[in-house]
Write a structure and sequence with these properties.
The complex is a heterotetramer, with two copies of chain A (325 residues) and two copies of chain B (359 residues).
Chain A: E1 3-4, H1 6-20, E2 24-28, H2 44-48, E3 53-55, H3 60-71, E4 76-80, H4 91-98, H5 101-104, E5 114-119, H6 134-138, E6 144-146, H7 151-163, E7 168-173, E8 182-183, E9 197-200, E10 205-209, H8 213-226, E11 231-235, E12 238-240, H9 244-254, E13 257-264, H10 269-280, E14 290-294, H11 305-308, H12 312-324
Parallel strand pairs in A: 2-3, 2-4, 4-5, 5-7, 6-7, 10-11, 10-13, 13-14
Antiparallel strand pairs in A: 1-8, 6-12, 9-11
Chain B: E1 2-12, H1 33-58, H2 72-81, E2 87-89, H3 95-100, H4 105-112, H5 136-150, E3 157-162, H6 169-181, E4 185-191, E5 194-195, E6 198-199, H7 200-203, E7 220-224, H8 228-243, E8 249-254, H9 273-280, H10 284-294, H11 300-323, H12 331-334, H13 342-358
Parallel strand pairs in B: 1-7, 2-3, 3-4, 4-8, 7-8
Antiparallel strand pairs in B: 5-6
Helix pairs in contact in B: 1-2, 1-10, 1-11, 2-8, 4-11, 5-6
Classes of the chains: A alpha/beta (325), B alpha/beta (359).
The complex binds thiamine diphosphate (2 copies) and magnesium ion (MG) (2 copies).
The site of one magnesium ion has 7 residues of chain D, from β5.
């Protein structure tokens, strides 16, 4: 079994599904010969031809709009948006169409489409190349939002997303693309889209995170262990719709919750989780719910990017706050 | 300076507003009088339906409704030129085309009556429902055309957009992509001169809308959209070309919005009554009727009989519409996802519970 | 003093400011002769001419994009988006530019622009005409989001928004446009954009809402009063950035919080308020924080619209839940 | 079918790739040899700067950088034709135009060095910073043109977009609006044949990009963008027309991206080395140099001296760039709003606090 990076796992998943399902096509800017600016589609055009791995004109509304057109007619498009900061022109098609066609037509049509986009900061990229906008899609009815945080989960969740009969916004943490390798069996096995993943069991504090911040979250949990504090780490993975059960069970056990995300604080997904817990499990709480998040500013250019992103130190500070009370 | 590219836009018309042929020969289908009678009857049916829908709205039995008064030739022309395997991507007033494709009038009423079941209509399962966000339908048609080509089907997609809609970026993106990929698709612009209160000259400096195709690198033509013979002929040729690998065509169909924008609009606020009257003289039904009368194929008695038949059929449809009642509250949830998320199931229960109380 | 509807108050505010500031221009689809599809700009073109009240081509990205261009060059554009469900093509310009130009240029340029859009359901409108998407803009750094709920506040908040040197997304509750009249003095006085409005003082439960739902919220508060329950009703008004202080003070007093909004629940603004309270005032809470919201579906076509929107009954149920514990 | 509209696209060139004039007379500015020498020197400076920036990136002293290699004639041509009152709306590689407008080279480095202070640049305060989201700058230019017209200023806006950018809807929306409103603005397309790895023929079926102007209802011309005389001349005429109420112009400037897309790109993956070599033969500096040499106005010694001067000036700028250091953490917050919200002030404190610890 090969050890692969997260981005290689994504390529593997796409290749597997393209091999086994002729209705799967890949499209986007530079996905062809170039294999994508991050090389997620590297080799796919060679392997599956120009008919199935398609360089589109430079227009995001078009990319998602035609994917909807394709998906309703029997194809399973995987659209790549070059960076999630460039997905906004396609927002109209996602919210006004992709998320609604099934219910609008009372099931007559549906949209089995995946929109992949690299997401998040920390790679010293130019402006708009480091956005974390998952909350916008989580607030959009009718679409699933998935963010993998390891090569294995990237492989299994992308396969599940391609196979899912409904639209999935698949946000890929660029910072993790090549950070670690993991053994991933290329067996075509999907992971479920309706569950969180408990990455580490613990009894004192529940840490909920997703995407690249899982990295800092796990480091913080390790750090706290040294101090004798046992952290449960939950990777949301499918960040919408949320598997609240796993989170609520955990909070009922630990009584303490810290949510960590890179996106701006206000109306971020951390708020959603905190709110649901403050409704469903308030009396289990032994401390305030703390959010450790990006600030309510755009991701700054890279000289300040690490001041923006939640660091391990900030996560630790958050954990200490819930332990105080 | 040397010239590196040249373009021109042609105009197609067979029948003038007085019902006089302006070309030596008519297309083959139009040489068959019975076929022309059928075409007239179809347009006439649409008009009866439209009047009834407006009446329903005025009496509080329908929500806001977008009339198609004046657009009958464009819509029926499109419908007649398409085959079931083609994919239709309408905007919101193309009932004439949709009836041809099997959509039932009561389904149109359901939609404007605030009921999603209207979108689960009869006719080709792959046809798109009405698209309210202007110009988004162009992308669906472009994507559908890709799928048809990919699947090796000898079929094409058709999208309709208004003159106002041609200002949206989506429209051009699709033109450009369809041109680059030589896709089997036809873009129809129903140029009815108004986008709600905004007249064409505020919308654009272009002398024709057909010339927008030049930005997509393919052919655009202007058609008299009140002349159903021209409209159907142009559509048939464009679809034929599309289905045979010739790529896209843009058809600008010239017409006029004889109605208010929708029943929520009052056009008297912004346009002159004379302009409307002038355009009544060019509308699509009268010219075909005059031509048919000149051939001895139509007369007042036939007109009356057909109108009565239309009225009866429309009434039946209205009954079906009314009989549909309110959809169950859970239908709001049942088609959100194929695999329903836990939390949404809870919300569904909650909504059913609520409905019981204030039902 | 004239009694005016909410929409008349908006027209008054625009007219006042246009009269006193020549740099203010109004633009959008059908805003000219037609005075807007809801008639918010009725009479403005007659009064101020076609140069200042401008019918644009039909393109929302254009409308907001050129407004940014105008605003950076000394004008104060008030752009109308015909319905908030059609604002998505402009989302890119709002999030990637309007909210960033000041900070991107370190203050060299700024964007004194107002984007007005009718918002919310309940008027039996067609699809996409009833959206509540304030949370998307609240998650967007660098823009203010304002939602008035009475003619007086509409007048004062719109004036403040036009005068504010930064971009404001001004979402107008269509359902309230003509619901009630109120005396509004046409004196050019703005209301502050950094504060909530306490519409009703109370001691037992805090109700936070905004926009059209203020109507149901106040009715529910009246209803509860009959049962001897005293509700404090807070109108968020400027829904972003949020004046947390007023809310926290109130919750510390009442110990109970219900948040009411029409937008879908998941990652709605109710989540943000709940989360902040669950962090800052957890130990003041005597009951779970309850959100009474739209469902996580698109606003259905109008036969089911009232099943979608939070009714007075649902608000009451929410209040009763926090009183139970 | 009758023809209802006709269009053609013209092409402008003064100097061929060998530096030979192809027209009888040159524009007035180009009849002044000293002026031509200045123009050459400006292009040459840009090239020296560009090479240095790439070197900085390669040695880890700069972030991702978008080279302008091959685009010097377009950029310097634009810069020379504009007046300070005009508004410039660049994409991300127009340093040659910006230097002309007063932007300092170290400010360009700051931007690509991950520092917003680069956007608070010298030169006209009303000029837009670099626009990364493709085609959004067209709207800003259109809006700015409206403002200039509204304020009665005799000035125009200029936006630059790439060949790839012409696929974005925003581009067309702005063309259409500027045409309809007859705005004082010039749209420049820097057609360098590639959009990252996507060649022009995948981007569009259009034989010219200038013809996109037909969809806006105004004039579009094609210019040899490697010929600074043609570029400056076309810009001056278009700006003159714009400032005098003649409305917009679209200029397609033909060039070639001699570099990788950015330093993060490796163009060898997707394009042939021969193609690049062929285009080196047409690049903008050599032809003007040859022409100047033919006039006896330039020689190797001058070249060497000038290059040395450029290198020295660029080095000074690099020093300024390096001296800038890291901006204070609070600058992330200080320009979010004129009136800072409470919660953001708290976040600001928090960030300052954090920075102290891991500073
Ligand atoms: C994206 C978007 N913006 C605004 C609207 C509101 N609207 C509905 S119809 C219309 C005018 C359309 O005019 P046109 O394209 O000429 O079509 P017509 O109605 O005349 O057939 C507008 C502005 C919309 N539906 N979608
Ligand atoms: C909206 C948007 N989508 C994608 C990108 C990523 N991107 C940056 S440059 C580029 C190619 C641009 O090509 P072109 O317009 O020809 O300009 P060039 O770089 O060749 O000068 C792409 C796709 C972006 N910046 N903005
Ligand atoms: Mg129209
Ligand atoms: Mg290019």
């Amino acid at each position: 079994m090969a050890k692969v990076t997260l981005i290689e796992a994504l390529t593997m998943a796409m290749a597997w599904e393209m091999k086994h399902d002729n209705s799967v096509v890949v499209l986007g800017e530079d996905v062809g010969v170039n294999g994508g600016v991050f090389r997620a589609t590297a080799g796919l055009q060679e392997q599956f031809g120009k008919d199935r791995v398609i360089d589109t004109p430079l227009a995001e509304a078009l990319i998602v709009g035609i994917s909807i057109g394709m998906a309703t007619q029997g194809l399973k498009p995987i659209a790549e948006i070059q960076f999630s900061g460039f997905i906004y022109p396609a927002f109209d098609q996602i919210t006004n169409h992709a998320g609604r066609i099934r219910t609008r037509t009372r099931g007559r049509m549906h949209v089995p489409m995946v929109v992949r986009a690299p997401s998040g900061g920390g790679i010293h990229a130019p402006e708009h190349h480091s956005e974390s906008n998952e909350a916008l899609f989580a607030h959009t009815p009718g679409v699933r939002v998935v963010m993998p945080s390891s090569p294995k989960r990237a492989y299994g969740l992308l396969l599940a997303s391609i196979r899912d009969p409904d639209p999935v916004i698949f946000l890929e943490p660029t910072r993790l693309y090549r950070m670690n390798k993991q053994e991933v069996e290329d067996n075509g096995e999907a992971l479920p889209l309706d569950t969180c993943f408990v990455l580490r069991e613990g009894t004192d504090v529940t840490l909920v995170s997703w995407g690249a911040m899982i990295h800092e979250t796990l480091l913080a949990a390790q750090e706290m262990e040294k101090e004798g504090v046992s952290c449960e780490v939950i990777d949301l993975a499918t960040v919408s719709p949320i598997d609240y059960e796993t989170i609520l069970d955990s909070v009922e056990k630990t009584g303490r919750l810290v949510i960590i995300h890179e996106a701006p604080k206000t109306a971020g997904l951390g708020a959603e989780i905190a709110a649901e817990v403050a409704d469903q499990a308030l009396f289990s709480l032994e401390a305030p719910i703390v959010r450790v998040t990006g600030y309510d500013t755009p991701m700054p250019l890279f000289k300040l990017e690490h001041d923006y992103m939640p660091s391990v130190a900030r996560v630790l500070k958050g954990i200490r706050r819930v332990l105080e009370d | 300076m040397k010239t590196v590219a040249k373009f021109e836009i042609k105009y197609l018309q067979y029948l003038d507003p007085d019902g006089k042929p302006v070309q030596k020969t008519l297309p083959k289908f139009a040489q068959d009088v019975n076929e022309l009678v059928e075409m007239y009857k179809k347009m006439s049916f649409v008009r009866v339906f439209d009047a009834k829908a407006i009446a329903l709205q005025r009496t509080g039995q329908l929500g806001t409704y977008a009339s198609c008064l004046g657009h009958e030739a464009i819509h029926v022309g499109i419908g007649l030129a398409m085959i079931p395997e083609d994919v239709f991507c309408p905007m919101y007033r193309e009932y004439g085309a949709q009836f041809e494709r099997g959509v039932q009038p009561h389904e149109v009423l359901l939609f404007w009556g605030g009921d999603e079941r209207g979108n689960n209509f009869s006719g080709p399962k792959h046809d798109f429902p009405w698209a309210v966000p202007i110009a988004t339908q162009n992308h669906h048609a472009t994507g559908a055309a890709f799928a048809l080509k990919y699947q090796g089907k000898k079929a094409a997609s058709v999208s309709v957009i208004g003159d106002g809609g041609t200002s949206q970026g989506d429209f051009y993106e699709s033109l450009n992509c369809a041109g680059a990929w030589k896709l089997p698709t036809v873009f129809v612009i129903a140029n009815n001169k108004w986008a709600i209160s905004v007249p064409l000259e505020i919308q654009t400096a272009c002398e024709t809308l057909a010339q927008k195709a030049i930005a997509g690198g393919f052919e655009g033509i202007q058609v008299d959209g009140n002349d159903i013979i021209a409209m159907r002929d142009a559509m048939e040729k464009a679809l034929d070309k599309a289905r045979n690998g010739g790529g896209p065509t843009l058809i600008e169909a010239l017409t006029y919005r004889l109605s208010d924008h929708t029943t929520a609009d009052d056009a008297r606020r912004y346009r002159k009554e004379e302009e409307v009257q002038e355009n009544w003289a060019k509308e699509p039904l009268i010219r075909l009727r005059k031509y048919l009368e000149s051939l001895g194929a139509w007369d007042d008695a036939k007109e009356e009989a057909w109108k009565a038949e239309c009225a009866a059929r429309v009434d039946e449809e209205v009954q079906k519409y009314k009989a549909a009642g309110k959809p169950p509250v859970e239908s709001m949830f049942d088609h959100m996802f194929a695999n329903m998320p836990e939390d949404l199931l809870k919300q569904r229960e909650q909504a059913i519970e609520e409905a019981k109380h204030h039902g």
